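Deliverable D4.2, example record:
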Amino acid sequence: MKIHTNIFILLSLIGILASCTKTKNDTKVTNPNFKHTSEVKYAKGFTIERHSDYTQIIVRNPWDSTKILEKYILVNKSLPIPKNLPEGTVVIIPVEKVAICSAVHAGMWNLFHKLDKVVAVCEPEYMSFPTIKEGIVSKKIIDLGMHTSINLEKLLLASPNILIVSPFENSTDDRYKNAGISVVKDASWMESSPLGRSEWIKFEAAFAGEDSLANTIFTDIENRYVQLINKVKTTKDRPTVFTEKKYGDSWYISGGNSYIGQFLNDAGASYLWNDLDNTGSVPLAFETVFAKACKAQYWLIKYNDPQSELTYEKLNNEYELYANFDSFKNKNIFGLNSATTPFYEQGTMEPDIVLADLIKIFHPEIMKDYQPKYYFKIK
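Output generated by the structure prediction step:
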């Protein structure tokens, strides 16, 4: 009897959630004469088009820009749902309950001062916000497990208005649509510039009903970032740099058109793989990387170690050939420990601070009194 009761509850929840995404056709007609396309300056992955009684957001397919990944139709809860809406996932805004799959998205909702709207998260161990931590302990926030294998029963019990995911090619996130969940796909991680990634705050703000706040936040970020770029524009010294370390048998190198490449160029460095015409990373053999980077002046490494910081001794013990790089010999390696800094929660929305850290590394004379937040010289 208990099993049958649980099944009945789940089926009822599915029916309720599914009904929330249907478009009603018995209210007012959309005014076709009003249309305003919001300014999106850096992000390539989405557009926002505002009409008199709804907002249309289009997310481009990151793997095929000629196609549309998703289309969202947002209607304010204070307005009746218009007739003849275009095709797309209808979402009533501002949403009251949200499920989040990534620390990056939690960071955005924290900037909106709306973490109290979060009812479920994936992988809370990677989130440091007290509201999230306390919510998990008190069970006000449900732990959905891994992003790649969300517990559907728990998701249905959390009953979010939207589930925000970071889409991957050939992912199975669309299966939640069949359960009546509006899946919101934030593809910011596919952007090729730091400001492009940050500008996705406008995308998530549309669902939170915080457009004005998001525009103000982003404009401030943009201004600070541009001011920092201008500080290094005239410098003739552009030290050579490479990034990360090998993982298994491969060393994943970011392309020159990636957001990492953009960061390093904006910071006044000479990224050794600038000539790699790629927006993502490509796996290379250690020998290939060493041949090009053995004389590089700087080496940057991101890692996650909650127990201790990266050291030269640890690097050497991990792979003794690392010691043959000049940057190792000259003690010019800088590390970012994502276990002790909120890089994945806040870094996307703090590209100006990440850039300031990098300028401090490559041109310390420009940032004399600056104290870094993310990157530190290893010992």
